[in-house]
User: Fold this.
Amino acid sequence: MSKLGVTASQTVGPFLTIALKADGQEYIVPKNTEGALKLCGYVYDGEGNVVPDAVIEVWQANVFGNYNHPEDKSDTQIVNEFSGFGRSCTDQDGRFFFITLKPGQVAGRGNTLQAPHIAVNVFARGMLKQQVTRIYFSDEVKSNSEDPILNSIEDEPSRNTLVAQLNSSGDGIMEYAFDIHLQGKLETVFFDV
Amino acid sequence: MSEPSEYSRRSKNDHPPALYEGYRSTAHRSPQRKPIKIEHTLTEVTGPLFKNEKINPSESDLSIVDGQEAQGQRIYVGGKVLDEDENPVPNTLIEIWQCNAAGRYKHAVDQHPAPLDPNFTGKGRIVSDEKGEYKFTTIKPGAYPWGNHYNAWRPAHIHFSLFGPAFVTRLITQMYFPDDPLFPFDPIFNSISDEAVRKRMVSKFDLDTTEPDFALSFKFDFVLRGREATPFEGQV
Assistant:
């Protein structure tokens, strides 16, 4: 059977916050949740300017490595209140953030285990379609070294663009920095999914 | 454990390139390196389902704010969300945003000297029903100028955001109206080189669902990525 043609992507344009910004959507868990961490970063363009009209969306497993989705048939636990989805519109300084829990490990292809990671969609004015990347965690040294997708990227500086750096646990919450460079020398690794 | 079956891949023809010279802002916001192809894992074939999202039925009617009617041509925009195999995509969140009838967005960045409408926010949400169907009531958006090039005007459009069943089915697009004279001049519309693919972004006027003495109706079906056909047949 011939397939229907998919609907093409178009840019979110400069006015995306009208519909895509809502209070609290950066909080995948409340800040006072045990083990909560803060992920924050800036979006930069190819000239090193911040991108104040981007929206970052994240999708992740819960702490047991389980997705709140019927296709996850693993026998780990579902945490009902944990949706796994967050959205953050960048502010005037190009900054986004999420409050979440570090995901557990999820099965990869061919009996592998993926390191804890978060899937990311990046949309912005000036982007005709989304770019897809992943966030890994700098303190997951062993599991990162065994992750099939990280290992498929031979160039170390490129691989490191996917790793959020643990900065501090200042006010009682772990804070990871993850910047997104849309273009240029520091360009983030994007995936064709 | 069995491998997740892949979603179909995005073909080059079906989507705009990251860099399109005519749309100037892509110059510094388009990655220069080729994206790395990865096989789909559980991460890519799952996605947010918004089961607990509370959506008020009034959120799909943009034509009325606090009982007061917006200015402009009242329209319905409705249709189906489907996958490539024509299966309906039910219970999926659809978010829209648009300018008002005069071509002005309710947004601080929009300085176009056209009037704002106190009875129009330009924002709506709905969840597709069991048959994948959706229907918004709104106002036909106006065309508006933008700074991309001399005398640049965007054809009338509504921004649509859809999720579908998986991380990889996520789609943000724009729906256009039939026979817009601005089509030949719009680099965002023309960033898609294939005319047939561009036409899929244009809604159709529908007299059958037009409501007498009330609203014109435009039909628009979305097609999200589907599954590859039996990708692991023969594998255990």
In short: Residues 21-181 of chain A form a domain with the Protocatechuate 3,4-Dioxygenase, subunit A fold (CATH 2.60.130.10). The CA atoms of residues 66 and 75 of chain A lie 8 Å apart. The first helix of chain A runs from residue 17 to 20. Helices of chain A lie at 17-20, 141-145, 148-151, 156-160.
